[in-house]
């Protein structure tokens, strides 16, 4: 195996933050010595998450086994997930900061194909991945990210599963979303008009009022025509008596009780 020097496009502050999280974790559990110090473990995890290399390649570059590299990555991912802000706390902070509105959108994180690939295949993007919901500020700064759902999960379904619509309604912050969130039961979520012939209210940027559900009667004939059908008289065809018609075929042997004929090649 050949070795070479490489670089990862991350800042030194990111490395120091992850190393500090690992250092506090080792102090809490009383882990005095490991094969890699907190800084090297943090670099291993960041390289794996950023460059998506295999555990065999990562372990060879840092001088550890593939199992140790996997255990280091799993530990740090769990620690970073525990440090991430909760949805309610993020919305309270956004309201305290005086943000005028928020942006809600879903993203697909590409993954390798797995054995049970059907739930993870996104028909929209035609790739395998995981669905993640993101809430950002007006300038695009990410305030909160959800967990991962299979790639075929719809954005509106994922938002309902993670309770995003309920928390946005409680916070009362105007939220802009795309057409994937049409039908969201939240008055603060504003979605664009879907379809042609956009009304004037949508041109002005105002939300479209909810329409009454369509009844089955609208697709049928008017009620007055059904109640009083027109009276018409059927005229007999020229050259044929009213009781004249096609000759009825003889009754089938299968209905007359006769035995069925068996075909022999």
Explain this structure to me?
With 265 residues, this protein is of the alpha/beta class. The protein folds into two domains: 12-83; 87-203, no CATH class. Helices cover 35% and strands 12% of the residues. Strands 1, 2, 3, 4, 5, 6 and 7 form a seven-stranded mixed beta sheet that branches. The N and C termini lie far apart (71 Å). The mean pLDDT is 80.
Essential attributes:
single chain, 265 residues, alpha/beta, 2 domains, seven-stranded mixed sheet, 9 helices, 7 strands
Précis, in short:
The protein has 265 residues and is an alpha/beta fold. The protein has 9 helices and 7 strands, in the order αααααβββββααββαα.
Oligomer: single chain
Q: Which strand-content bin applies to the residues?
A: 5-15%
Helical residue percent band: 25-40%
Question: Which parts are unreliable, with pLDDT below 50 for 5 consecutive residues or more?
Answer: none
Beta strands, count: 7
Radius of gyration (Å): 33 Å
Tell me the number of structural domains.
2
Name the average pLDDT.
80
Number of helical stretches of at least 4 residues? 9
State the order of secondary-structure elements, H for helix, E for strand: HHHHHEEEEEHHEEHH
**Distance, first to last CA:** 71 Å
* Main sheet characteristics: 7 strands, mixed
